[in-house]
Amino acid sequence: MPTPPSQIDKQTLITRLNEARNALLTLVRSLPADRNEAPGAVGDWSVKEVIGHIASWEDRLLTLTQMVLNGQADKIEWIDSHEALQAWNQRQYLRKQSWTWSETIRELALLREEVLWNIDGMEPEQLFQTHDLAAGRVRPADLLEGIVAHDQEHLAELQAWADGNSAEP
Fold first, then answer.
1. What's the pLDDT score for residue 167?
2. Other Cβ atoms closer than 10 A to 152
3. How high is the pLDDT of residue 3?
4. Stretch 38-59: mean pLDDT, rounded?
5. What angle is formed at CA 158 by the lines to CA 97 and CA 44, rounded to 5 degrees?
6. Range of 89's domain?
7. Is residue 168 in a domain?
């Protein structure tokens, strides 16, 4: 019989969230402020737009987690194709297009506080319980782990851009 989830498992998730975000923020803070809004950091997106994108996904993954925990998973609109993913990302991009750097980075910080506050209020059993949904099996912890993976994905892209960018005169 599997070992029930523990506070250690919960703390491991929190540590992973914090380490991934701290690595991302360390890189972002090291970049020249005048480059935050220059296009081309990741595709056509600026650093500000990448940070806004990360925040949008953190909000989405937290909302999905809350819906699963509250028994509302049947109301989730799952993104089930590349086209749907691109359309969702584009809607978020357009929604935040006029935001300033300060507004964008503040949203990221506030969302992280909300994620951690939500995790703090969950028992390990809730966090690691498997839910059978129409879209498949999911655990709230896995949805939140998606935040870690997303931070790491964009950290690698931004790091590659920063490394290439620093070689310019």
1. 44
2. 15
3. 78
4. 97
5. 40
6. 7-30+42-163
7. no
Asked if residue 166 has pLDDT above 60, the reply is no
Predicted local confidence at residue 133, as pLDDT: 86
Give the CATH number, domain containing residue 130: 1.20.120.450
- pLDDT at position 127 over 60: yes
With a CB cutoff of 8 Å and minimum separation 6, the contacts of 51 are 28, 104, 105, 108
Which residues is 19 bridged to in the sheet?
none
Contacts of 93 (CB under 8 A, 6+ apart): 45, 49, 52, 53
Residue 36 in any domain: the answer is: no
> How many domains would you assign to the chain?
1
Give the C-alpha distances (Å, rounded to integers) separating 131 from 10, 11, 45, 151, 166. Answer: 18, 21, 36, 25, 46
pTM over 0.85: yes
Q: What is the DSSP string of 63-90?
A: HHHHHHHTT-GGG-----SHHHHHHHHH
> Per-residue pLDDT averaged across 22-50, rounded?
95
Decide: 140 and 123 in contact? Cβ < 8 Å.
no
The continuous run of DSSP H or E covering 131 comes out as strand 131-133
Residue 152 lies inside a defined structural domain of this protein: yes
Within-domain flag for 74: yes
